[in-house]
Amino acid sequence: MDNQTTNELEKSRDRIDVIDSKIIDLLTERQAEVEKVIEYKKLNNMPVRHPAREEDMISRRRALAKEKGLDPDYVEELFRSLLRQSRVEQTESKSEKGVKADATVLFVGGKGGMGRYFAQWFNKSGYNTRVLGRNDWDNVESLCDGVDLAIVSVPIESTLSVIERLTPYLPKNAVLADLTSIKKEPVNAMMSMHKGPVLGIHPLFGPSTSSMDKQIIVVTPGRDEGSCKWVIDQISEWGAITVRSSGEEHDRIMAVVQALRHFATFTFGRFLFRENVDLFRSLEFSSPIYRLELGMVGRLFAQAPDLYSGIIFASDERRSMLREYISSITELISMVEASNKEEFEREFKEIAKWFGPFSEQAMRESSFLIDKLIERF
Questions:
Q1: Which DSSP state fits 313?
Q2: Under DSSP, is residue 137 helix (H, G, I), strand (E, B) or coil?
Q3: Which CATH class is domain 250-376?
Q4: What CATH homologous superfamily does 104-245 map to?
Q5: Tens of pLDDT along the chain (377 residues)?
Q6: How far apart (Å, rounded) are the C-alpha atoms in residues 75 and 211?
Q7: How far is residue 301 CA from its own chain's centroid?
Q8: Per-residue b/e over 304-324, b at no fewer than 16 CB within 10 Å?
Q9: Is residue 313 a contact partner of residue 266, using CB atoms and an 8 Å limit?
Q10: 260 vs 251: CA distance, rounded Å
Q11: Which ranges in 238-315 belong to alpha helices (H)?
């Protein structure tokens, strides 16, 4: 490379640095306008997210990108990142305002991960919070005095006994809620033992989550929905998406979404362990989708075993489904032993037909994740 070419290359790099600096300046200017929007929404009690406006904005940015000769997908990804950051900041700001900020909230088991997590959010929103840990039962009467909301956040196997122990001390008009990953039994128990408002809550995320933006929280109404509304409204203010479900429906679906999925992941990891597979060497040969799948297995084993045992073996319904799952796998042994490709392909086509349009959606979503993984690694 001659000196002239080298000089031109350095000039281009210098210009890119200047442009990057301008981009940062523009982002700073944009952020100032976002803060004005935040203040306006706070003053007028407006929701953080406006899906129709967001999609309209993305469509217009894509059209402009195409007009300018840029890849619309690249520009969409950039602006979706900006929109999410804006939502997170608006949610953080709005979280400082409580829907019923003068209320007192008691966390039973609030020294655990999820209890501490929600206590932080209620604190940030100006609520008076108290914690009843395992060593605080001598003070249960004073801790329950005057509370507006009591949230039970203890291991699944302790939930019913804790509810029974707690309810005699609660004010009759206090909302009683739980954060358990099963809903039918706890909600029925709360309704049986507490005559006031009852609400089941199940966050579908862990306590390491930094933002509630678009996080899913299932709510199971128990009694007196009107008195529970402020709790649900507060969750929405934090940016979470609430999904309403009966206890029966929740437990039926979560048996698949949580128990079966975690158990299947456990069995895969167990097999890799038994075979003593060289994980890091396998990654050198792997496609991005294998890295993603192995990452989910590793994620499971990076966490506490009692967390997952509690989820997987939480109910007879879940254990029954796991038995059916194991039975369905053993049915495949004869197919493997006979190397029966025809039977495999026949079942494959039948199952693919059952998945229907979701398969196309899954291809799009997994392809997006794979592309992001390639960028990182």
A1: T
A2: helix
A3: mainly alpha
A4: NAD(P)-binding Rossmann-like Domain (3.40.50.720)
A5: 566 777 888 889 999 999 999 999 999 998 888 888 877 876 776 666 667 778 888 889 889 999 999 998 888 888 888 887 877 776 665 556 789 988 999 999 867 788 999 999 999 999 999 999 999 999 999 999 999 999 999 998 899 999 999 999 999 999 999 999 999 999 999 999 999 999 999 999 888 888 888 899 999 999 999 999 999 999 998 989 999 999 999 999 999 999 999 999 999 999 999 999 999 999 888 888 888 899 999 999 998 898 899 899 988 999 999 999 999 999 999 999 999 999 999 999 999 999 999 999 988 888 888 877 776 66
A6: 24
A7: 18
A8: eeebbebbbebbebbeebbee
A9: no
A10: 12
A11: 247-254, 261-274, 279-284, 288-301, 305-312
Distance CA 322, CA 264 (A): 9
Which element (helix H / strand E) includes 187? helix 184-193
Q: Is the domain defined by 3-94 classed in CATH 2.60.120.40?
A: no
Helices (H), 45-139: 51-67, 72-94, 113-124
Q: Which residues pair with 104 in a beta bridge?
A: 128
* Radius of gyration for the chain, computed over Cα atoms and rounded to the nearest angstrom: 26
Q: Using DSSP, state whether 348 is helix, strand or coil.
A: helix
Crossing angle for the helix pair 288-301 and 358-376, to the nearest 10 degrees: 80
Domain spans in the chain, listed from the N-terminal domain onward: 3-94, 104-245, 250-376
Instruction: Quote the tokens at residue 19.
Output: 């442009």
Q: Flag whether the pTM goes above 0.85.
A: no
pLDDT confidence of residue 123: 93
Strand stretches in 190-272, DSSP E: 198-203, 216-223, 241-244
Which whole-number Å values give the CA distances from 78 to 27, 63, 71, 164, in the listed order?
Answer: 12, 14, 11, 51
| 44 burial type by CB count under 10 A (0-12 exposed, 13-18 middle, 19+ buried) | exposed
Query: H-helix or E-strand containing 178?
Result: strand 175-178
Q: What's the CA gap between 153 and 143, in Å, rounded?
A: 16
Per-residue confidence (pLDDT) for residue 89, from 0 to 100: 73
Choose among 132, 136, 95: nearest CA to 111.
Answer: 132
Closest C-alpha among 238, 241, 257, 260 to residue 249: 257
Q: At 366, list the tokens.
A: 């997994």
